[in-house]
Amino acid sequence: MTYVADVLVALAFVAAGYWAWAAYRAHAFGRRRPVPSGFTPTVSVLKPLCGVQPLLYETLRSFCEQDYPSFQLVFGVSDPGDPAVHVVHRLIEEFPGLDVVLVCDSHALGTNPKLSNVVNIYKSARHDVIVLADSDVRVGPEYLRTVVAPLADPGTGLVTCLYGAVPMPGLPSTLGAMYINDWFFPSALVAAAMQPLSYAFGATIACRRDVLDALGGFGSVVDYLADDYMLGRAVAESGRRVELSPLVVQTIVDEHDFRTLVGHELRWARTIRSVRPVGYLMSFVTFGLPLSLLALACAGATPATLAALAANLVARLVGSHVTRRTAGIPRFPDACLLPLRDVLSVAIWILSFCGRTVRWYGQSFTIDRQGRLRRATP
Asked: Can you give the pTM of this predicted structure?
């Protein structure tokens, strides 16, 4: 037990160092400022929709309020009876001067239902710069100017954005937002600091039409669960840069209960595992608080175990504060939940190795070793 405790203490100190570095990366990223640019080509913004999640009107409205000369909004649903249609009609009436298109197309072009929707609405995009953004993303009026600016350089093939999470009321939603704010966001910045970005985040993907079409369009990733990741990788492999915008957008997290929360996070975990298996396997070294608690259980309250626990508590609390300030997310009174959040993350990490099945859009899928989706056999 002493040997096990020593290993756990060593790993816990590694985790504390990791989170200290992540806090530094978040601080450095927060000091970046968008570079003013006169590059304002006409843009088509694609917004695939499915159902009405909380604050859908507010998130979609934020795209209608852009400080940008000329842009088109293309909303898409696969079912004409989708309640999101009413929200779009409300925006069309409220902003009669905007170029807004609503596409209703039920054709399933692949196993990824969201990307099938995107491929269908892409046909209605009229401009040469394409911006794809999730339906639960909320942005400021400078959003389009900022994300499009790097595309003025022909060497830039794609621009993407990190995102912070704003939870709806309830413990499951709070824990879901903490996963994004206190684990995903800083971890993404650490990964971006270690090597050039070669993938994208679904919150925002901006690219030129010629680059996208040369890769086969959105249809080239319509069978992948991690479609954003695969599209960014294809751009990087073509020899063009994937740029991380200094702009951080916000996403709304609404988890009705713990079963829904675990289902969502298990899907994300198995997605990451499918595209970055080695990195995902090594991510256990980020679970500093659970490792410290295990060391404490094995060896008792020794100076080493207490120091490891204290180091991880400080690193996580400081990192959480810095990350949320960088992401522009209000500081929620949830610091006491960090140990619970990390224990839940460990459980999700372990469960992710116990199968390849995920639930999405009310259907069961399996993920093969290349990250492709297959409909699960009943």
From this structure: 0.91
